[in-house]
Amino acid sequence: MTVExxxxxxxxxxxxxxxxxxxxxxxxxxxxxxLTGPAWAENRSAADPKRxxxxxxxxxxxxxxxxxxxxxxEQSVLGELDALDRRVHAGRRQMTVLDRQIRxxxxxVKQLDDDVTRLEQSVGTLRQSVAARLRAVYVSGxxxxxxxxxxxxxxxxxxxxxxxLQRIAARESALxxxxxxxxxxxxxxxxxxRDASERLNRERRELAGVLDDITGARADKRTLLARxxxxxxTTAKAITELEESAKQLQELLKRLELEAAKRKTxxxxxxAKGRLPWPYDGAVTGxxxxxxxxxxxxxxxxxxxxxxxxxxxxxxxxYQGVVVYADWFKGYGLVVVxxxxxxxxxxxxxxxxxxxxxxxxxxxxxxxxxxxxxxxSDEQTLYFxxxxxxxxxxxxxxxxxxx
Length: 403
Fold this sequence. Notes:
This protein is α+β, with helices and mostly antiparallel strands. Helices cover 61% and strands 16% of the residues. It has helices at 3-36, 39-45, 48-75, 77-140, 143-150, 155-230, 232-258; strands at 284-286, 289-293, 298-302, 305-308, 314-316, 321-329, 333-341, 344-353, 361-362, 367-371, 381-388, 391-393. Helix 4 runs antiparallel to helix 6 and helix 6 (155-230) crosses helix 7. The protein starts with a helix and ends in a 10-residue tail after the last strand.
């Protein structure tokens, strides 16, 4: 009797130990799962590091390209100005094309409006004629024609009445055919009018977009030029780049010198010293030589003169010669260079537009472009240089004296 409780107690102890062991094993498994993850997770993620590395490399490359683009942009003030000038120039050319298209389209729409009005009147008149004839046929009925024929007094009269009916039928057939043609023509004119009006509206919206882009580019340029004036580092960078650009221009003129023998020029510009006409009749705002730049508050050496001008006005050749360069040049904007023979060259910069081509001969006083705001300039000026053997000369000693 005393053994049973002891056995029962031993069973209880064994049972508790088993439960505790099982619980401990379960907790250990759960901790292993939490800390290390299950085996299927390890297998699934085995390939992830490669994809993650590829994605990381892609992001790094993208960041690197963005950083390089930012550095390039920060490193080149003149490059950014050049891009903005080209954007404005391209927009203006596109605007010129769109203006012409809109004028032509407007004329087409007006002509179509007139055609529609005329056709509507013609169709209305024909519709009334057709309606009147249908009413007459309805009133007389089919028997009317038979009565007319049977009312003939003789055979000759019958033939005459039959001929009359045939003429009426032909006229009515022509009336209906004309009405159908005019109605179709009106439908075609209305479609053409609608299509032309839609194209006109699209072109006007496109023009508005181009104008917005031009306005934005010019605003961006003003902002950049304001930085050049007010930020010392940006000013120094712009002046350094402009000096480098001047050296590149010197190299360009040297290359042009080597090709001078192939060009036909009279070489008598030296005889006109002090009597050359002005490329533009405006006040001189920047003199030749070393001086302190009023806008950038730093010493510069100007190889030509700045002449106050009005945007869109013509710029003229000071002497006859041959066009040897007509393109963009960093820092100078749109540039034209003329070879006058005997190693004399004139340069016209900050142009807004030019239509002359390299190799084209020009005469004294001929328009070679129009004034613009291109290059390192935030005002409307013409930059003018005169060089001999590549050496800059003071243009004021060569141009005609003004009272």
